[in-house]
Design a protein that fits this description.
The protein is an alpha+beta fold. The protein contains six helices and 21 strands. The strands form five sheets. The protein has a five-stranded mixed β-barrel with strand order 1-2-3-5-4. β13 and β14 form a beta hairpin. The longest helix is centred in the N-terminal third of the chain and has 19 residues. The chain is rod-shaped.
Length: 347
């Protein structure tokens, strides 16, 4: 039932308290509950805003002045059905256009995630941040779809810096990028780094060929060959996502660092190789057999090579050697610069 006009309404010149669906009204928050907000619409009565029409990430308090869109001017209980989200969206595109023109960086809060990225609402307009537009800090370096979703969900409710990279009101398309928002800061941090620096980082992804590392927002890669002075068979045996590491910068390529964990410690090969001399007889264990020879472990850190040329004309490494067998060899050559020792069969 429509609210009757008061004497104050009549004296103010109000003659019609009805509101039309699709119109916009100004009001004040009367009460805030978990699933609804009540709005004092003045001479137009009281409006109800259900939870789905409040908008994601919006907080309202009693007494707040608001603008709402009318969905239904009169429900059976006499209240109007309103939408704060719709009204905000209508005004939001104007604000979005200003943000784009000014190139402003925003602080946004994702309200949901899927395997493709984060769902974000800004000024009543729902937008999206693709995984590819996340910064190094938040990018999920994994091919496991369930793990990608799990990591993205940890960002729900967190404040993230972002820039709008695509805004199309007609197509109702709004795309955000965290990468663009932090780009200038990364460039400044990169200029302060140089090859040879030892930096702290956090492992963000583990792959067959190495580990991705976040260094103060800059992406780095530790190749499998740079993890340890010892041979590493599986990266995942040495490093896990979330591990804190120290690494040496061995090259800088645009906005990515090549890192080495092993070069932060002395090379044990050089120390252990000092005990060997050309002509020495050494005992070693066959670790690998290849078409061009066999690799032999002659100390914990030193692996030497018996080349196929040392096996005679008919020598076949697979026939001469057995995996893990121990044999005696003669040291033929030591090249400390290349970290190589060549062996011959003990006559």
């Amino acid at each position: 039932m429509a609210k009757a006009l008061t004497m104050a309404d009549l004296m103010a010149g109000v003659t019609d308290q009805s509101v039309a669906a699709g119109s916009t009204i100004n009001g004040k928050v009367l009460s805030v509950k978990k699933n609804e907000i009540l709005i004092d619409m003045g001479p137009h009565g009281v409006g109800l805003v259900p939870r789905r029409e409040i908008g994601f990430g919006k907080k309202y308090n009693v007494g707040d002045e608001v603008v709402a869109s009318v969905i239904d001017p009169e429900l059976p209980n006499g209240q109007a059905l309103l939408s704060l989200r719709k009204a905000a969206k209508e005004r939001g595109w104007d604000e979005i256009q200003k943000v784009v023109e000014e190139g402003r960086t925003l602080t946004v809060t994702p309200y949901e995630a899927n395997r493709g990225g984060l769902l974000i609402e800004f000024e009543g307009v729902r937008g999206f941040m693709p995984v590819s537009q996340l910064s190094t800090e938040h990018y999920p370096r994994t091919s496991d779809k369930e793990e990608i979703l799990r990591r993205l969900r940890t960002l729900i409710g967190q404040e993230i810096s972002a820039q709008i990279i695509d805004a199309d009101q007609k197509g109702n398309k709004l795309i955000f990028s965290e990468k663009e928002a932090v780009k200038d800061g990364l460039a400044n941090r990169l200029t302060s780094l140089k090859v040879g620096d030892v930096v702290d980082g956090t492992v963000t992804g583990v792959v067959d060929f190495g580990a991705f590392v976040n260094v103060d927002g800059i992406e780095g890669l530790v190749h499998i060959s740079e993890i340890s002075w010892e041979r590493v068979a599986q990266v995942s045996d040495r490093l896990k996502v979330g591990d804190k590491i120290k690494a040496k910068i061995i090259s800088i390529d645009k906005d990515r660092l090549s890192l080495s964990i092993k070069q932060t410690t002395p090379d044990p090969w050089l120390k252990e190789a000092e005990q060997f001399h050309v002509g020495d007889t050494v005992e070693g264990t066959i670790t690998r057999i290849t078409p061009f020879g066999a690799f032999v472990q002659i100390s914990p850190a030193v692996e030497a090579l018996v080349h196929i040329s040392e096996l005679g004309e008919d020598g076949n490494p697979e026939k001469v050697f057995t995996q893990n067998e121990k044999r005696e060899f003669t040291v033929l050559e030591i090249d400390a610069d290349s970290r190589k020792i060549r062996l011959g069969l003990k006559k």
